[in-house]
Structures are given as C-alpha cells and as structure tokens.
C-alpha cells in the first residue's frame, strides 16, 4: 500500500514522500481501517517540522485524525465490527495519510450517520477541543458573547459552531476576505478581518463597552495581548495554543485588576487521564451533528496526491476553512 512518509524533518512540501509500505497489522486492542478521509491539521505541519510535543521516530506518516472503515480486528476487540465507519486518531508513526492505518479500538468512535466521510473526519480533534474548552474548562452560557481567534481554522471554526449551538453571540477574528466569508457561513454574528481592522475597538463598540465573556485563543502572541483589552469583568480567556508562534507572558496583575480568568486547555491529556470524558464528548457532538446544530464546513477537498501541498499551504496560513484529503 502507499503512504506519505517523512524521512527527515522540515517543511511538508520538502520532506513528504509517497512510498510503498507494508500493510498494517492489528495488534491486541487495535483495529485496521481503510482511510476514507483525513483532514489537514496544524499539528501535522508541526510533526513534519519536528516542532510538535509528540515526536515519533523517523520515518513516520503524519495525519492525526480520520474517518475510516474497519477492515481488521486485533485480539480482544469487541467494541467495533468489520465494515463499521469510525472516526478518531490513528497510531503514530503510521498516521492517517496512508491508504490504511492502525487505531486503538478505544480511540475509535462511530462516525455520525448524518455526516459524509469528509465532514465526519473533521469532527474529532477540533470539535472535541472546542467542546472541552467551552463546556468543561469553562461553561459558556446562552446569551454570553464569545470571541474566537483564527475563526476560519480547524479549532476556531469548530468553536464558532459550538458557541452558536450553546446560544452565545459569536465574534470571529480572521485574516483575509475569503476567511471572513467562510466564517460568516459558519454562523458568526460578527466577523472582523484583522488584516483590515483592529478588533479591540470594534469588539468594545459591539458589546456596548462591556467586552466579551469568553475568548477562545489558539493563536497567542498579539491576539492574546489585545484580548485582555476587551475582556469583560469576570470574563474567561481560554488558552488553546500558539499558532502565531509567540507564547504570551500574561500580566497577572492585569487579570487581578479586571477580575478575569486565564484557563489553559491541553485536550490530548484527557485521552490519558479521563477517556470516559472523551467518549461522553463524542456522544454530545454526535447528537449536535444529528440535530443539524453543527457540521464541519469543508473549505477544500483535495486528492491524496496533494497532501504535501495542502499541508504546506496550511503551514503558510493560506488555506481557507478545513482542508480534507480523500484517497
């Protein structure tokens, strides 16, 4: 079978090569799946560069989430069956950018019937991250205002839809006109193009000077710093990641004076510390998908042959919406 493989670290366009590899075999507690669709995620770019917190041994195949069809069961697996459609994360070093891959059965979840392969493949990491941030690390309440940075990206677009599903007013901050249109299609109540406008005065005016109740920040750097200028009294800033490349140094005296909370989320830790919470979250997301309240909005559907270029553009920041590869 064929798989995209990284033999040396660097930019995706330079280091990914399509090679023939042996068919994967399911070990105890594992399943083998045919990959039906696999989204591009920023961690895939970081994996290629060697900058992600998980560093699989070389060579490896990136691709951190997928929708697949089960073709083989390992010893002791009784939670899924042959032919079932599942979503989740595969087992590195053989990731999702391959014709077939291996998953832990405990990390494979039924694909919602309401979603096609491409949409289902994008429901796992981004939406789980958003759900844990907005409903576990804090509680986003109906009528509150949510500000989402990188609102046309993977985790940001999920947060926009989850915020609307929770009954919040959602402000999306994006970079570029195409991303702004995509964010409007997600349902954001107000979209701000940071390439054109400073979001702080616009947010203050939109909220009548009060500021936003919750900030969802996967960017860091300047996005975080400016968010502190338009956070409401007793607001919450959710620190999701640092896609902007700069880790902010928060002024704790400012948090004290304005009575706001700074809340971190490392969603991956729940896979090790509270797997039951991951499954509960999946059930909640499935119900929302079945009701039509959420549905990943795919910006680009690319053939398997374009994995290096698609990841490269994601790393450059030039993609719009979710990019999904379909073999």
From TrEMBL:
<dbReference type="Pfam" id="PF00107">
    <property type="entry name" value="ADH_zinc_N"/>
</dbReference>
<dbReference type="Pfam" id="PF08240">
    <property type="entry name" value="ADH_N"/>
</dbReference>
<dbReference type="InterPro" id="IPR013149">
    <property type="entry name" value="ADH-like_C"/>
</dbReference>
<dbReference type="GO" id="GO:0008270">
    <property type="term" value="F:zinc ion binding"/>
</dbReference>
<dbReference type="GO" id="GO:0016491">
    <property type="term" value="F:oxidoreductase activity"/>
</dbReference>
<dbReference type="InterPro" id="IPR051397">
    <property type="entry name" value="Zn-ADH-like_protein"/>
</dbReference>
<dbReference type="InterPro" id="IPR011032">
    <property type="entry name" value="GroES-like_sf"/>
</dbReference>
<feature type="domain" description="Enoyl reductase (ER)">
    <location>
        <begin position="13"/>
        <end position="325"/>
    </location>
</feature>
<dbReference type="InterPro" id="IPR036291">
    <property type="entry name" value="NAD(P)-bd_dom_sf"/>
</dbReference>
<dbReference type="InterPro" id="IPR002364">
    <property type="entry name" value="Quin_OxRdtase/zeta-crystal_CS"/>
</dbReference>
<protein>
    <submittedName>
        <fullName>NADPH2:quinone reductase</fullName>
    </submittedName>
</protein>
<dbReference type="InterPro" id="IPR020843">
    <property type="entry name" value="ER"/>
</dbReference>
<dbReference type="InterPro" id="IPR013154">
    <property type="entry name" value="ADH-like_N"/>
</dbReference>
């Amino acid at each position: 079978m064929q798989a995209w493989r990284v033999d040396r670290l660097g930019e995706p366009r330079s280091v990914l090569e399509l090679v023939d590899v042996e068919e994967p075999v399911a070990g105890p507690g594992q399943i083998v799946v045919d990959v039906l669709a696999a989204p591009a995620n920023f961690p895939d770019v970081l994996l290629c560069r060697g900058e992600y917190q998980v560093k699989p041994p070389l060579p490896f195949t990136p691709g951190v989430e997928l929708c697949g069809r089960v073709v083989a069961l390992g010893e002791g697996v009784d939670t899924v069956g042959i032919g079932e459609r599942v979503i989740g994360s595969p087992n590195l070093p053989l990731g999702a950018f391959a014709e077939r891959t291996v998953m832990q059965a405990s990390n494979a979840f039924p694909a919602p019937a309401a979603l096609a392969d491409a949409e289902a493949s994008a429901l796992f990491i981004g939406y789980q991250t958003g759900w844990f941030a907005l409903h576990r690390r804090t509680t986003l309440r109906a009528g509150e205002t949510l500000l989402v940075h990188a609102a046309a990206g993977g985790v940001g677009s999920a947060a926009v839809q989850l915020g609307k599903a929770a009954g919040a007013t959602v402000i999306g901050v994006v970079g570029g006109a195409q991303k702004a249109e995509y964010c409007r299609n997600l349902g954001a109540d107000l979209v701000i193009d940071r390439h054109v406008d400073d979001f702080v005065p616009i947010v203050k005016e939109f909220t009548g000077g009060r500021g936003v109740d919750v900030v969802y920040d996967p960017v860091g750097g300047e996005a975080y710093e400016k968010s502190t200028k338009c956070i409401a009294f007793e607001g919450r800033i959710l620190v999701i990641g640092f896609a902007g490349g700069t880790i902010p140094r928060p002024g704790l005296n400012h948090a004290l004076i304005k009575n706001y909370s700074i809340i971190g989320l490392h969603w991956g830790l729940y896979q090790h510390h509270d797997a039951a919470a991951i499954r509960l979250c999946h059930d909640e997301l499935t119900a929302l998908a079945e009701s039509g309240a959420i549905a990943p909005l795919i910006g680009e559907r690319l053939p398997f042959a374009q994995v290096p270029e698609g990841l490269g553009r994601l790393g450059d920041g030039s993609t719009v919406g979710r990019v999904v590869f379909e073999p």
